[in-house]
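Side project, low priority. Logging it here so it doesn't get lost.
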Amino acid sequence: MRIRILCLLSFTFIFGACNGQKVKKTETGNTHERTFQMVSIPSVITEPEERAVYLVKHYWDKFDFTDTTLIHLPEITEQATSDYIDLIKSVPPKAASSSVKDMMNRASADSSMFVYFAGIYEKYLYDPNSPMRDESLFIYVLEAILEAPVLDDVNKIRPAHLLELAFKNRVGEPAADFTYTLADGREETLYRTKADYLLLFFYNPDCQACKEITDRLAASPLVAEWSKNNKLKILAVYPDEDMEAWRNHISYMPADWINSYDSAVSLKNDEIYDLKAIPTLYLLDKDKKVVLKDVTFEQVENYLKRQQTVNHL
């Protein structure tokens, strides 16, 4: 059973219920139980945020990073990491960054353990299909990997590249400008496209998930309402080279969208945006600052709902 944050931070702290799943393992005929050992929070720490910060700081204190058999026990090690990720999302960035880097430093006691945890973090924090994906936390992991002496320069090439991509078009920063081409051959740029909010939709004509996003956006009453009076525009961009596929798909796209392609293929070749998966959605404000980066349709709708509520107050 997943360790829940409320359970971890409860003032009553019943460790028997919160220590995670016990695992039986047999070695040389003896059966014993192995489990992830949770630390105790001193009773003098009563503020919820302080308790969370303490737990994040000391979460791995009882974990043996030299015991490589734990790599083969995901019900202990991977589950503990998943619960840890849930927890560090609830503390200030400084505490989260410090904890992640300290944890990875401890993991460097054994190279196989270090590589294992690096892979787990990528699976949960970077994989586009992960519901726990979090770029900010993954940046802390990548920084820790690049600082670690346990890896040589060759094995740091990919993490360095991922970190470079992660720092592009971050939330709150201006989005990178680019040129797009319309069906009639006219060219426009991102920054010349005026709207209170601009939804960037990077897609592929042959992508089923892209068709599903197209249908959901087109059918959304909320999106339709925001699209009135230029409050929201949708800029759909095809970043690849198969122009025949793109032209055959034009009739499928809603007529009120800006449907375009990247004739220079610079978005992909120069990696102006991190398009690790298609479809990809970005929401920009009127100044072209990134409001939402690489999010789901639900996250876009939820943001619009919140803004609508605020504007009606």
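Brief comment: Strands lie at 23-27, 30-34, 179-181, 187-189, 197-202, 232-238, 258-261, 280-285, 290-293.
Revisit when time allows.
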